[in-house]
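Re: the 279-residue chain
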Amino acid sequence: MESSSLPRPPSRPSQQPVVRHPIPVLPYPGAYKFGTWESVEDREEYRPGGFHPVLLGSRVGENDEYRIIHKLGYGGFATVWLARDSVADRYVALKIMKAEVSDVQVSKELVNIEKLRAAPPEQSGRQYVAMPLVLPVLGPRVTAKRVLETFDGQAKRNMARQAAEGLRFLHANGVGHGDFKPSNILLKLADLDDWTEEEVMERLGEPETDLIETSSGEPLGPAAPPYVVLPLETADLDPRFLQDQIMIIDFGESFDEKSPPEGLGTPIGYCSPELLFDD
């Protein structure tokens, strides 16, 4: 059941309406005013070739099948959004890449994902790997305080085993993750698709927005949205909505085992011993 109770984006002062017409690209540092929050994507990356401007309530997809409800997070290459799939009638996480990296980054990511998809469905560990760019909506990382406080030792050992099985699945199919760390190991949520949108907002929080304004006072160009959205926080989600099952996410740094990169995105504390101590 869908709801129309999404919060309205903040309105701009009436004397300065949002004007969508070509103006200077604003490629220089400091093109936009500082915002209220630090825990959002870099506003300066809203430029031609940068982050795609996404609005709450807008529809995206080949057939406009995904309606944007909330923001899940962001990284150096993409923003991730909570959306409702009107065709499959479910919630999904949409990873929307920067334009300038889309061709190379997505192509590399999709090549490795396709290799994993071609693996036998019954292969052990497959169920712990989130492969497409349209993802299931997941919960907090395995090291979140609420997770550590909620689950007992046996459940934590099971999660570690699942992560190891998922990693073995990748390696058995010739794929290295490239950025294997706790922030890319998330818990599954229980029965999310049964939630109404009112329940989603009640349990995950209403979207909060902050205006984007140019330092010069000029109108925003077409590369920038009128506001940024604070990512929702799943770390404090009620434990009854969490499952003790993990999913490995984010294949942006993944690689074919036959052509490994010179360096990995994985923090040194999570690298294998042979990488740390190899002479």
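Residues 187 and 245 are 6 Å apart (CA to CA).
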